[in-house]
Amino acid sequence: MQTLTPHVYWAQRHADIYLRVELSDAKVLHGVKPTFLCWTAQGHGAKGDHDYEFSLDFLEPVKPEVSHRSTQRLVNVTVRKQEQRWWDRLTLQERKPLFLAPDFDRWLDESDAEMELQAKEEEKINKVSIESRIRKDPYLGLKKGYLFMYNLVQFLGFSWIFVNMTVRLFILGQDSFYDTFHTIADMMYFCQMMAVAEVMNPLVGLVKTGVFPAMIQVVGRNVILFVIFGSLEEMQNKAVVFFVFYLWSTIEIFRYPFYMLACIDTDWKLLTWLRYSIWMPLYPLGVLAEAIAVIQSLPIFDETRLYSIPLPTVLGSSFSFSFTLKIYLALMFLGQLVPLSDPTP
Fold first, then answer.
1. Strand residue runs (E) in 5-132
2. Distance of alpha carbon 277 from the chain centroid
3. 242-256 per-position pLDDT tens digit
4. Which residue in 13, 95, 105, 333 has the most C-beta neighbors within 10 A?
């Protein structure tokens, strides 16, 4: 197949040489030496589909890296000059090759190119100046330190719960279900009281999470822990306590270290995957376990009249707390639509 020469258009800046090759659907193979470019391609040019090639002996040395970008109509080639200066012409020989012509779309005179270069330098200086004027938070390190320690403490607390319950399950089997509250409650109380900070953190601007989602999560769990389990001795020996505590701790032993590492700008891909994957099955299961606990507590609240509000004789004897729990039960399932809060800066 005959090798032909394509039309080539050129322009320059102080640092670069721009070549525009009129060749569509090109497959490019090129090589460059200190002052010489040998460019070969197969594509569709002025004389149809052929092999096309051209060579240029540059006026001054250039860098060996040559970049090119092909489109359906042409190929753009960029060659970096070894020294940033303006050339009087492109090639070493004074006579311009017949296939070469100026690229007037990119053409600039030396004075215009200097103005363009000066404008870019001024833009860079202005950008640096603006960035330097932006006030950085002087307490950012302190905030991150506090959030790191908070997440670390919560991670250690829920890890203790998870490991303790797992070991007891292997040793005692199903018998461990019925004394979970008496064994684990103190640590769970501590962790859930600490979790109140997840409502306060967005209130004072430490994290970007909304206050309302964090409040739903913290209040929801504390109702189960302090009201359902803590105030009803009849609930403390039920197996549902085990499943609620175990699901909570399983979620948190992945969630808190994820946010802890985020405080020091560290991303562990496996932990990230586990945090967002395990959450999907465990969170609905946790809500289901909480709902079962609420349902099991309803007849106990009706029988004991605990937290019931006395009413005038005309309206009835009292307002049962179980009615409030039924409303809470409906809201609990709607709460699944609210994402977990992010205790990170």
1. 8-12, 16-21, 24-33, 36-45, 48-57, 62-70, 75-81, 100-102
2. 15
3. 999 999 999 999 999
4. 13
Residue matched to tokens 């203790």 = 160
Q: Per the structure block, which two tokens stand in for 159?
A: 């890890």
CB contact at 8 A, 86 and 24 = no
CB of 220 closer than 8 Å to CB of 335: yes
53 assigned to active site: no
From 283, 303, 307, 328, the catalytic residue: 283
Count other C-beta atoms under 10 Å from residue 265's C-beta: 7
Q: One-letter amino acid identity for 191?
A: C
Secondary structure letter of residue 336 according to DSSP: G
Measured CA distances, 154 to 23, 57, 258, 287 (Å): 64, 68, 12, 20
**DSSP code for 72:** S
pLDDT digit string, tens, across residues 67-84: 878 777 788 888 888 888
Find out whether 245 and 184 touch, Cβ atoms under 8 Å. Answer: yes
- Residue 283 annotated to the active site: yes
DSSP string, 300-333: HHHHH-TT-EE--TTT-SEE-HHHHHHHHHHHHH
Structure tokens at 172: 């005692």
Cα radius of gyration rounded to whole Å, the chain: 36
226 vs 304: CA distance, rounded Å: 17
Helix axes 180-194 and 240-262, enclosed angle (nearest 10):
30
Low-confidence ranges of the chain (pLDDT < 70): 1-3, 25-26, 28-48, 128-137, 311-318, 334-345
The Cβ of residue 199 has, within 10 Å, a number of other Cβ atoms equal to 19
Residue from 256, 259, 290, 328 carrying the catalytic annotation: 290
Would you say the pTM of this structure is higher than 0.70? Answer: no
d(CA 255, CA 339): 12
What is the Cα–Cα distance from 228 to 219, expressed in whole angstroms?
13
Q: 205's torsion region: left (phi>0), alpha (psi -120 to 50) or beta? A: left
Q: How many CB atoms lie within 10 A of CB 325?
A: 19
